[in-house]
Amino acid sequence: MPKVRIGVAGLGRIGRVHAEIILTRLENAELVAVADVVESLARSVGEKYRVKWYTNFDAMLKDPEVDAVFITTPTNLHKEMIVKAAEAGKHVFTEKPITVTVEEAREAVRAAEKAGVKLMVGYMRRFDDAYSAAKARIARGEIGEPLVFINIARDPGPPPGWAQDPRLSGGIFLDMLSHDFDMARFLVGREVKEVYVKGEAALYDEIRQKGDLDLVTISFTFEGKGYGLIHGSRKSVFGYDLRTEVLGTEGTVYVGSQVDPNLAVGTKQGLSYRGVQWFWSRFYDAYVREDEAFVSSILKDEEPPITGVDGLRVVEIAEACWKSWREGRPVTVERSA
């Protein structure tokens, strides 16, 4: 069987996860290179996995043994790296969000289209068992026509370092809630038409000082019919908290945070389970299936399941959210052709 030879650029936590998956879990892919601007990190990961390592992304792109790249760097670097990779003829997987701004996203999409390379954006929830099953049941018509999307997303704490600066990460709407915008489009199957945001920086001084928000509620409408509500918080004291509902004309589908059912304690206060799953225990397998899907799209010469345009649509929603919050009014999502 042919194999896609992959280089991973950006060796923070998520970059190392993708490198490990490519190396150990993908039959039709081969990890051949890693890159990071921190030499000690690039060297240690490269030596650990016995692959070539680079401190310069351009140098990795010149490697003829690299067919595709995974871009897992801070968001503000994505556009330039996507464009360079496309111009070098490399297929591109980029972690979400695709870019910080709509104009950057358009440039990235155009570069991939011009070069004729695959461009996939990493919204791994689409590959989670529960969310993919929910999509299948909605598609089969089990809840009738979907009309209302409701989502709660709460992280255990604030993002690290650079991600607290909305100029680099896109802020809470892109760095965190872009997953939820993507899931609204994915499950309901319609584009978001208008958003109205209420939000504040009520939890963390460092987030407020950077100009970001840590507590938001977004009400929105879909094109045609239907509406939604997304609540996001950068603080959940008991752990990662994610819950989704889609109400249809004939029923409702629910996706919730999973609890460990192996231990429960019942008292007069009620029945309690051992804690909720944390992020990695919940979504690791989804990352594996996501990476498999990207490799498969290359080998079969098919469109990736999450395209650059999907990534662009999410950035368009996020920009409308920032505008709504700043102006205190509903804002129409302006979509590119």
TrEMBL record:
Protein keywords: Oxidoreductase
Superkingdom assignment: Archaea
Organism of derivation: Thermofilum pendens (strain DSM 2475 / Hrk 5)
GFO/IDH/MocA-like oxidoreductase domain span: 131-253
Database matches in InterPro entries: Gfo/Idh/MocA-like_OxRdtase_N, GFO_IDH_MocA-like_dom, Myo_inos_IolG, NAD(P)-bd_dom_sf
Gene Ontology MF terms in the entry: nucleotide binding; oxidoreductase activity
Alphabetized NCBIfam families for the sequence: myo_inos_iolG (TIGR04380)
Descriptive protein name: Oxidoreductase domain protein
The Gfo/Idh/MocA-like oxidoreductase N-terminal domain, residue ranges: 4-123
